[in-house]
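hey so i finally got around to running the thing on that chain from the lab meeting. sorry it took forever, my laptop kept dying and i had to restart like 3 times. anyway pasting the input first so we r on the same page abt which one it is
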Amino acid sequence: MGLKSKALFLHPRNNHLRKHTTSASVILAIDIGNTSVDLAVFRGKRVVWRDKISVRPVSRMLLSLKGIKIPFKLDAVAVSCVNPPVGRRIAAWSKKKLGMKPLVVGKDLPISMPVRLSSGQAGDDRICSAVAAYERCKGACIVVDFGTALKMQVVNSQGEFLGGAIMCGISLSARALHEQTALLPHVRLRTPRRAIGRNTEEALRSGLMIGSIGAVRHLLECIKTELNCPVTVFATGSDSKSLGKAIGSFDSIVPVLALEGIRVLYEQSVDHL
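ok and heres what got predicted. didnt touch it at all, straight out
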């Protein structure tokens, strides 16, 4: 199906064009991160199309955007962004190619989850994954997001975002060790059979993989102790399937949790747009 014709629902300013929204609405959710852009089309709650592109270099990202073909007529485009320069390019692409101005989490789509932080604001990607996790379990939960940064989001039983923990993602740590030292190589990440590395590559894999697995397990235990209640633990992000199985502390592995949260926030807001 071609994408030249505009969908009826475009933007809050175009309320007079908005059609009745049902559970089968077709929504393009876009999660714009520091190293990649994740895209998914939801028909209702079901993912019917997915893609992912790198944001570096910009020329490659622009070429990838030109090649994206979405075989659905969209009712809306909704975006979460922690990378404003890339976000502006994605917005321009959406308006030009899809004929739709994206609805932005935190601006057009209010964040419904109470955020209990002492100061500042959590990244929208963290909020989106927390919203989706709570929507799934309706109770206290922890989300471990294996991305550029390894992030943990914590939600209490009342559905309030409490904060969490952030550390270097495993791929970022491996790249930093290679780029910031004279002799350490860049290694392909895989879980080693033993902790004692017999050469530099094995030692790096041990520290990066086994060390990160231990850090995640320890952080989860500390957070569970502080919550002091039954808790559901989710893994998400690009490395969630491989690392989630290695860590073995998760009730559910959902790689598209942040995209799912964007969809939930859209559905919560659509009647007020």
